[in-house]
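mind reviewing this stuff:

——
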Amino acid sequence: MSSEALTMPATSLAIAQAGPLATIGVDPGQTWTAAVLRVGDAGVHGWTMGPVDRQGVVMRAALNDPDEWEAFGRYVARLVDGLVELVDFAIKEYGQVRVGVEVPHVPSGFQPGSGGKYQRMPLRDWVVPRQVAAAVIGQFPEAKVVRPDGHGGRPAAEYPKELRGTRPPSWGPNETPRRERDHERAAFDVAGEAMRMPR
């Protein structure tokens, strides 16, 4: 989707300025990626998706090899399709939407000049999320870049009811094995950071 699709028609500008900016936060992961549409302090819609095998079956181990580009391509294609659908929904409901994505830092052990003893984080744990973030920015060039800051780390009770316990039936899939909500809470926090950035 072009960046123009993220822009509100001029006739709706005054209406939308009266309320909070609808913002989609993306928490990219090596195995699970979540996206949540946030409006003010409410979680309106969201999903958590994972990688699939060649038959389209969710398979947690599909991205264990960071050089498995075919599996990564399938993963990103699903995520982008889900984001485009969520963006379309937000524009229809609110007139405009902002996208924010968390972009993981390169771990200190992998930065130039670091000694090998500091390279303890598995490569896939940060390379794949960075690649996912890059794919989101490639699809939505005006997406706000949000730096890691413990997103999703607050106690669940501090999040709105949509982000804890039973998920709203209207939300998209949650493909994690135990239907965890931590990635969606992180995406909600990412949306909050992106929402406060200058327009």
